[in-house]
Structure formats: C-alpha cells, structure tokens
Design a protein that fits this description.
The structure holds three protein chains of three kinds. Chain A has twelve helices and no strands. Chain A has helices spanning 2-8, 11-37, 41-48, 51-84, 90-97, 99-102, 105-116, 130-155, 159-166, 171-200, 219-227, 232-263. In chain A, helix 4 (51-84) packs parallel to helix 8 (130-155) and helix 9 (159-166) packs antiparallel against helix 10. Chain A is globular. Chain B has a single domain (37-99, 140-268), classed as MetI-like (MetI-like fold), CATH 1.10.3720. In chain B, helix 1 crosses helix 14 (235-268) and helix 13 (222-231) packs antiparallel against helix 14 (235-268). The longest helix of chain B has 34 residues, at 47-80. Chain B is globular and about 65 Å long. In chain C, helix 8 (180-195) packs across helix 9 (200-212) and helix 13 (290-298) runs parallel beside helix 14. In chain C, 48% of the residues are buried. Classes of the chains: A mainly alpha, B mainly alpha, C alpha/beta. Chains A and B meet through helix 1, helix 2, helix 4, helix 5 and helix 6 of A and helix 1, helix 3, helix 4, helix 5 and helix 7 of B.
C-alpha cells in the first residue's frame, strides 16, 4: 500500500499541490489580508465601520438570513416530498433543484430583473427592495438546503417513526419530535452553507438591487465599487470582514451540528 | 409504515420550486425565441458572441483538467496518507466555497497586478497575467477548486483500500491500480464533481468582471458578453447568450442526475 | 464489457481530436494581417463611437496593417485597470482627473496636453492665436453637455433642474465612485443652482435633494442608460451624446436640455507605450482630424474642431446666456484637481472646528443622509 500511495503522493507531487494552492488561493487571500491590515488595525476598523459599509453589511445579513431560513423550511419540505412521495415528473423536480448550482449567476440575475423588475410581465416591481434581493438569494441557496437533508432522508429507516405511529402519535407530532431532531444537524449544515454563499453573492443579486448606497446596496456590490475605484485597502478591509463572518458562521454551524449529532 | 406526504404538501413544494426555478428558466427561452428562430441563429453568429464562446471554451479546456488532477491527487493524499499537513490542506481547499466572487477578483488583482506580490516578479520576466486570458484561468481555478475533491473524498473514504491492496498483492503497478481500481470506484462521483466544475467555470461572473478588463474580442467571456449586451441597447442579444448558457446548464443537470443515479445504484450493491 | 474509465477515456480522446481542427479553424477566421496593434481604453459611453471611428480609420492609408483591441467601461474603473497593468496605448477617459491619475502612476506623461499640438494638429502651420482658435482646451477630444432623458411624451413635464426634485420624480444616475458620467451629473446639478444665483449652501441643499431622489446607481454611464431604457426611474441624467445615440437607436425616449448645464470635456491621451506605437499616433491624429471629428459630430458629440463645430452646430442646443453653460473651472478655478476632492473624496473631511462644513467628500457626506424621497 505504501508503494502505491507514495508513488502518487510523493514529495514532488505534494510540493506541486502546495505551490498550486498557493499561487491560486493562498497568496491572493494573503494579499487581501495584508492590504486590509497593512495600515494598522485602526484603519481596518474604520473602513469596516464606515456608515455605507455597515449599511451594506446589515442589508446583506438580513437578506441572507431571510433567504436561508425560508429555504430551511422549504428545502426540508422539498427533500421530504422528493424522498417520501411518488408522483410522475418527480425526477424532473429532483433535477430542477440543482439548477441554481448549474446556472451562471448573471443568467439568474438578468432573468429575475426582467421577471420582477420594471418591465415585469406580472406587473410587480421589486427592484431596489429587500424582497427582490431575498428572492434572488432564495433561488441561489435552494440546492444547499435540499441536498444537505436529502441523503439523510434516503438512508433513514423510519423505524422510530413507525413505532411512534403505532403508539398513536399523529404524523405532525412524529415529524416534529422524532424526524426533525434527527435531521437537525443536516439542516443546520445546509443553512450554514447557504448563509455563507448568500453573504458573498453578486451576479444574481446585483441587477435586481439598484446599488443605492444606504438603501439597496449589498456588501459584495460595495466591495466591488471600492475595488474598482482605487480604494483597494478599504475594499480589502470589508472583504476580510466578510470572510471572517462567513468562516465564523460555517464553524459555528459545524460545531452545533456535531453537538446535536452527538446528543442523539 | 408512515403515511406519504399529504397532497397539499406536494402541491406546495411543486408550486415553490416551479415559481422559483422553472418559471425563470421557461421565461429565458421564451425571450430568446421571441423574435423567431432565424433571428436566434443570426444572433448566434455575432462576432463578439463567437469570440466570447471560444474564450469560455478555451478557459475551460485548461482550467478543468488542472482542477481535476489537483482534486483527485489531493483526495488521495488526504485519505491514503493523512498527516497534519494534509488535514490543514483539507480545510484550506474548502476556502473558495466561503469566498465571494468579488473578493476572489480583488485578491487576484492585488496579487497579480503589476505592483503586486506575484505580478512584479512576473512582469520582470515579461509575463502579464492581469487583464489577460490567464487571469480568467486563475480566477476559474480558484472558484472551482474544491468541487471535485468534495465529491470524491467521502466516497473514497467509504470505499476503503481493500480493492487497491488486493490489486497490489496481485502485482499491479501504481499507475495501473489508480486507473483501473481507484478511478473505477469513484467514476460517477468524479463525473459529478467534474460537471459541477465545468458549470462553475463557464458561469463565473463576479471574479471575471474584475480580473479580465472586459477587453472586447479578447477577454470578454460569455457571461461578460451577456451583461455587456444588456448595457449596450441590445438586450435581445443578451437573452440569446442567456439561453445558450441555460441550455448548457440543463445538459449539466442531466449529467448530474445520471451521475447521482448511478452512484446510488453502486451504493445499493455495496456490502 | 469495457471498464467505464476506458470508455470515457476513449470518447474524450475522440472528442478532443475532433475539436482541435475546428478550433484552429476558428482561430484563424479571416483577419487581415495586423502588424501594429493599438490598445484602446475608453469610458463606457464612447464605445460605439470608437467602433465607427476605427472602421473608417482602417479604410484610410494610415490605417494599413493596424489592428485594434478595445476595452470600454466605467471611467474610474478603466483608469484603475490601466494603473494595475492593463495594456493601453490610447486612453479616452471621461474627465481630466482620470488622466492626471495616470500621470501620477507614470502611465501617461505629464505633458499629455501638448500631444495635441505634436500629433493631432490638423494644420501644423498654424501657430499662436490661429492655432488656439481651431481647438478648444488642449488634450480634449470631444465636448458634450449634461442633459435629461425622459420617457417619450415627457409625461412628468420635466424641463429644468427644479423639476427633478419634485414629488414622485425618480432619478437614474450612475455611481460616482466608478463612473465619470456620475461626477459630471452631480457637478452639473450643483452648478445649476449657482448659475441661477443661489448661494453655495443652497446649492448643497439642492444636491442633497437630488441624491434623495436617485433610485438607481448603476456602475457606468451606459449601464445607467440601459437601466433607464429597461424601465427604472422616470428621468435619466446623462451625456448629451449618449442620449442622442439612444434616440437614434429608436428607444422610446426624448431629450430635455435644461437651460443651465455643465460643459463636459473628455480628454484623450497617448500613453507612454502609445508614444512608441506609430499606429496609435496615426489614430490619435485621425481622432483630431476633420474626418474623425466629423464622425464624432454625426454621433452626437460636440466637436472641438471649429470648422466641424460650425458645420454641425445646428443640430445641437445652444446655450445663450453667459451663465447658462459653465465649465468645471467656473465651479472652482483650480478645475478638476480641486473639484474632485471637494466633492468626491471617499472619506469625509470637515473644515477645522466645524462639524458640518465639508471640505472634502461632499457627495460622500450627502449620500449618508439622503434617505428615500417621500
């Protein structure tokens, strides 16, 4: 076994992998951190707490939370129907769930703007509102919540639920007290991934939000205007803040999911 | 046995997914064909669109194999030769999932601009990365880095080394083991990862917006072409590009569905 | 049964083998031999004009063997990209401070404005006063003015700046952080009040109302036009030439030229690499020549060449009173150098001892308190 693995993962290959990772990811991210903190913590903090930055981050957090929570409910329900139900066209539904993964963000953005913007065929116009932004975020994060729960449901043998049913508990009660707690770690993981993705989403949201500072500007759009107008240090500072937020959320969800899983 | 989900729930889910996902997709094709089929075909042969299409293909042809080789190699390393370094690697390669495309673009610009850490030595050798084809390749590699290994690692872990050990005792060399045993056991998971990688690279927008310079007929990818068209009084041309990418996405969905189906079959036959 | 991986490998090899000849065919798709490539970097709105100009330049003898690589986008973003290393031989940006920024980063020489006399002058025999009367400000290749664009029929009856801050009016103007057009618009809004005789404090109050009524801030001038045509807002503030192009493209809009406006001057410069590129210099000359200026004029730009301006001025709105068309130097005699930091500095700096009189970053400051229009 050693001969096999060392042939494929010898020092040379490992060094190559490390160089590859550094050139593509590590050094660029280090450059962002360096520009963010290079002028001192005071300058970093002041860039992050600029009124426009705070407003953009606040809007993004609210919409990301809203979209993720909505998908927590809808995603679990969708996974439930996909696994437990049988109806014609079910495989199409299953395939459609992956569409937001497969579809380029700019395609989603442009389409939502045309559907729910000023020339909407339904005569709704939600450009520049948190509703429009949340719709886009909900679209983009749907697969995370469904695919996080679906595998668990597929491999689950519903013996505990069957036992509870024979003891007379209603379907809703069984779901609430038995299935849901068992699914909670997976649901949380799904929300975590969805939230982290939503924090940084750009292409699908930028068209339907109008990028008005203090009103409908999302965080990634703010970073973009900073980055493309020569203020790279401020852009790096806000980027670092967003990165830390995303990582904290992911780690927090991971720990909580593990704790709940262990408590089972 | 538990009851099936109620009809109400099924209808609710269908309406939700239909309104959120199917409706936009249908709308795209309706818009693209709204001027008739011949106008669609004419729009496809537009010079900027052709150049954007080929650029996107040329980027994928280089970036996808790079990430596949990296993803497979790293998966093997993390699972078959675990160490502290490999565990750190495991966490690090998931980093791109948490990074906004705009931050990706900013980070690459900072590193590869003429006065950047990497850009300066490269410029001394006459190599320019920013605002060229190579910037788009690096950005594409960044955003799709973990997609293959995330699919392959869980599967490799559950498959175990049993078959590979057997092959080795039978006298097969490392390369042969890899090609005929390891790869075989992860074919559909790898296919799933490769398909996601291709989809991600073709559809990247935010990062490419920053690092490409949007140079017409040179560094204008198909996603940039779409947004340029919407900004240049030619929304119909934009929708043609949108529908092209949507067609590719549907193809991707089919492959993903097939891969997931085949993978589940394999699992079903596992002891 | 062949193992799946072998089948996949076989198919992949066949596919690549089939694709390569197709790819090489497309790569050599009928381009004329190019011996001199000129990299053009411009602001967003001027893109279509350059397309026309390049086509007609290539038909002239001076254009033999020349090829163009174009990049157009929001002016400040383009400036920054050139500073970060994007190849550029010729830059046509929205406002003068963009070029000054390139001078500071050693991309353009400090004497860029004299390039016009060296490379652009139509009749090099002209000197002194005769030379000056042929062209407007040195280094400026096109003029324009700030106008309003409204839906066809002008349903809201918008005619002047005070109409823009009326109830129910939703303004579209680009993001001043990235777009030159946005800066021209905001300066025009501010100066319009001074032109009407108001005090600077009243002009600041008006500017705040203007910002309050803004409902979209796309990244560039052309993005703003696209958003407006797609239905956002009910009045767009933009370059006159962009407006004329949209009308010519058949969009259901009309132009309203206010009685007070600001003179837009777009600079053109050869970069340090462009100075060594004969094709770039030839194209620079073309842009200032009668032929090039004629094409600009036909596309709605106000020509800087006196002869062309005289021939085409009938199709442009005249500004009659002396204080009806200001330039940036009327707002501050130091011009863009001072105006850029007073209005558009990214962080707010107050006058010493004061908490409300901004000395830098006025627009940044006002945007904080703009809120949404009632």
């Amino acid at each position: 076994m050693r001969r096999y693995t060392s042939a494929l993962t010898g020092h040379g290959a490992r060094g190559l992998a490390l160089t590859y990772l550094s050139l593509v990811v590590l050094i660029p991210i280090a450059a962002v951190v360096s520009h963010a903190l290079g002028n001192g913590l005071g300058s970093f903090w002041s860039a992050l707490t600029q009124p426009e930055a705070l407003s953009a981050i606040r809007l993004t957090l609210w919409c990301a939370a809203g979209g993720s929570l909505l998908n927590m409910v809808a995603g679990t329900a969708t996974a439930w129907v996909l696994v437990r139900d049988r109806f014609p066209g079910q495989s199409i539904l299953n395939a459609l769930i992956d569409l937001p993964f497969a579809l380029p963000t700019v395609v989603a953005g442009v389409t939502f703007y045309t559907l729910y913007g000023p020339h909407s065929p339904f005569h709704v116009n939600v450009t520049g509102t948190w509703i429009g932004i949340t719709i886009a975020i909900t679209f983009v994060t749907l697969p995370f919540s469904v695919r996080a729960v679906q595998p668990l449901l597929e491999t689950r043998t519903f013996t505990a639920e069957a036992a509870a049913a024979t003891l007379g508990a209603s379907s809703v009660r069984v779901f609430r007290t038995i299935t849901l707690p068992a699914l909670m770690p997976a649901i949380l993981t799904g929300i975590g991934l969805a939230f982290a993705r939503a924090l940084g989403e750009y292409g699908s949201v930028v068209f339907i939000s109008n990028n008005l500072p203090y009103r409908s500007e999302i965080a990634s759009s703010y970073v973009y205007s900073l980055a493309t107008s020569g203020q790279v240090d401020a852009a790096s500072a806000v980027s670092l803040g967003l990165l830390v937020m995303a990582l904290v959320v992911l780690m927090g969800i991971n720990i909580t999911a593990q704790r709940i899983g262990r408590g089972e | 046995m538990m009851h099936r989900p109620s009809l109400a729930l099924r209808v609710a889910v269908l309406c939700y997914v239909g309104a959120l996902v199917a409706l936009p997709l249908g709308f795209v094709f309706q818009q693209a064909l709204s001027h008739g089929l011949s106008a669609f075909v004419t729009a496809l042969s537009n010079a900027e669109m052709d150049s954007a299409l080929w650029l996107t293909v040329r980027v994928a042809v280089v970036a996808v194999p790079l990430n596949v080789i990296f993803g497979l190699g790293v998966s093997l390393w993390i699972l078959r030769r675990p160490s502290r370094v490999s565990r750190v690697f495991d966490t690090l390669i998931d980093l791109p999932l948490a990074v906004s495309p705009i931050i990706v673009g900013l980070s690459l610009e900072l590193a590869y601009a003429q006065n950047g850490w990497l850009g300066r030595p490269l410029a001394a050798w006459g190599l320019h990365v920013m605002f060229t084809y190579w910037a788009i390749v690096v950005a594409s590699v960044f955003v799709s880095l973990p997609l293959v290994s995330r699919q392959v690692i869980p599967l490799l872990r559950s498959v175990g080394t049993h078959q590979e050990q057997t092959a080795q005792t039978l006298g097969a060399g490392p390369v042969r083991i890899f090609l005929t045993v390891t790869l075989r056991s992860i074919t559909w998971a790898a296919a799933y990862g490769v398909t996601l990688t291709i989809a991600r690279i073709i559809g990247e927008y935010g990062a490419v917006l920053i690092v490409s310079g949007n140079i017409g007929l040179r560094t204008e990818t198909l996603t940039l072409n779409i947004s340029n068209n919407f900004g240049n009084f030619t929304p119909y041309q934009g929708f043609v590009g949108v529908s092209l990418l949507s067609l590719v996405s549907i193809l991707v969905l089919l492959v993903l569905g097939l891969a997931r189906h085949r993978e589940r079959l394999r699992h079903g036959y596992r002891p | 049964m062949t193992p799946p991986i072998n089948r996949v490998a076989r198919i992949a090899t066949l596919a690549i083998a089939a694709a390569l000849p197709l790819w090489s065919l497309s790569a050599t798709s009928g381009a004329a031999t190019v011996t001199d490539n000129v990299n053009v970097v411009g602001y967003s709105v001027v893109g279509p004009a350059f397309k026309a100009l390049e086509t007609s330049f290539l038909a002239t003898p001076a254009g033999a063997g020349v090829g163009f690589t174009n990049s157009f986008g929001a002016s400040d973003t383009q400036t920054q990209n050139v500073e970060a290393g994007q190849s550029a031989d010729l830059v046509n940006l929205s406002y003068e401070a963009n070029i000054s920024s390139l001078v500071t980063t050693n991309k353009v020489s400090a004497s860029w404005a004299t390039q016009e006399a060296t490379y652009g002058r139509v009749n090099t025999a002209l000197t002194g006063r005769a030379a000056q009367t042929n062209y407007s400000t040195p280094g400026i290749v096109t003029d324009s003015v700030v106008v309003f664009i409204v839906r066809k029929g002008n349903p809201l009856k918008i005619t002047n700046w005070s109409n823009l801050t009326a109830k129910g009016v939703r303004i579209v103007t680009p993001n001043p952080l990235t777009s030159g057009s946005a800066r021209w618009n905001l300066l025009a809004a501010y100066s319009s009040q001074l032109q009407l005789g108001k005090t600077p404090a009243q002009a600041r109050a008006y500017l705040k109302l203007f910002i309050t009524h803004t409902v979209a801030q796309p990244t560039s001038g052309s993005a703003a036009m696209a958003a407006f045509v797609a239905g956002t807002g009910n009045v767009l503030v933009d370059y006159e030439d962009d407006a004329k192009a949209a009308v010519a493209a058949g969009d259901p809009i009309q132009i309203v030229t206010p009685a007070q406006s600001l003179l837009i001057e777009n600079p053109l410069a050869l970069t340090n690499t462009g100075l060594t590129n004969p094709g770039a210099k030839a194209f620079y000359r073309y842009l200032f020549s009668a032929a090039g200026q004629g094409i600009f004029a036909s596309l709605g730009y106000r020509s800087v060449l006196t002869t062309i301006w005289k021939a085409t001025s009938a199709s442009f709105v005249k500004f009659t009173k002396p204080n009806s068309l200001w330039s940036v130097t009327n707002i501050n005699s130091q011009g863009w150098k001072s105006v850029n930091s007073t209005f558009f500095w990214p962080t707010v700096v107050f006058a010493t001892g004061s908490t409300s009189t901004t000395t830098r970053g006025l627009v940044t400051y006002l945007e904080r308190f703009a809120g949404t229009a009632a």
